[in-house]
Amino acid sequence: MGLLSGSASSHGIANAIKVLSRTHKLIGIVSYLAGIVGFCLLAHHDYNGKVYFSEHALSPGVAGQTYSQDDYKFYQQLARKLDQFKGEESIPIDVLKEVMSLAGLESFHQNFSVSDPFGGTSSEIIAGQNVFGIARAPRIASTESMVIAAPWMSDNTRGVSLAVTLGAMIKKQAYWAKDVVILIVDKEVWGMEAWLQAYHGEERSQFLKAEGLPTSAGSIQAALCLHVTSDRFSGVDLQLEGINGLMPNLDLVNVVSMMAQYTVGGHVTFHGQGGHLAYGDDTDAVLTRLRTMFAGAAQQVSLQPSGVHGSFMRYRIESLTIKSTGNGGHLDVSAVARLVESTLRSVNNLLERFHQSFFFYLVAGGDRYVSIGMYMPAIGLILLPLVLRGLVLWLSDGDSSTSADEEGKSNSVRKNGIMGRRSCKLGVAMPV
User: Fold this and answer.
1) What is the pLDDT of residues 152-173, one digit of tens each?
2) According to DSSP H, which parts of 172-249 are helical?
């Protein structure tokens, strides 16, 4: 009975392999199309989730905003001064350090150099300098901090001016429980990498040489990077993706997105998609959310950060970039200033790191998200054809190997039988 059941089991497996070999292509096509349809359905409000706060201590919008007309005048004066250096590759270190010092910030600079790893022995060495100032928390030790960063670029002198203005404003306030670092980086990502390496006391690349920092603040809890191209604009774009597809904690994204509704209205986009069109249940809203999801997924697949904030992700620091869009609109930099201040006031309430909300998700709009538990079934269906094809190839290879072994045994037995009959005719005994 055991031999019969074993034979029946082998015969059943062989039949299953044959059926799978014949139908795996059809199953794969159906699975792939079902996965695409399922992913597209996630843009509908019935299949995605409404954003919420897992960390209730954030309390967004509870604290008032103190950014005033005097702060705006300070910004205008600094912006006019930095316009004189617009288009220059090097940062005006002396000007920025002087302004920071006059505002009461501790001001420092850092030198670094970058060599091209693909340039051979005669590779060009690029030198740069970062400038940073620290507004110390007045009533607590420097155990935690937040960062406002701005890269020095020809189209971001307004962002640099706003970052320094916010630092001067924060220094005058007594309710901060965390240090606030104002960071102006040179050479964009390279400058950010150099500063973060020195801040954490490590060297990640032999091609990037960074000078040590004379001082530091506390452990960085969150970072906001500013990219403001003009004094007036029509909206802001939130850039979230970090290196290797890493995403900031969804609670930080929700705080910025929610506060943006009060400071810049419904003119908040993700990868240029969204805005007021992403709200509602009509066809336009669904299509807008779908485009937003695809844009975010494509950016994650590229493994490239969407802004200089991506370097913070290496150190598990939640960060994102706030970028102005549509020059010459109805909004001015005061809207971004109030957005940054409101976000930092919320983060200032935290007693621990961001940890409760999602780290793997897709943004569908300002008030909708798709968590990993929602989109993984669709991704699984899309990847199923690869699994089936690999399984068929593996089983076919094993089946052909088994057939070859059986054929070899059969040939050996047949050969031994022929030799035995010849030996009997000759009267020679075969060896045992």
Assistant:
1) 998 899 999 999 999 999 999 9
2) 189-199
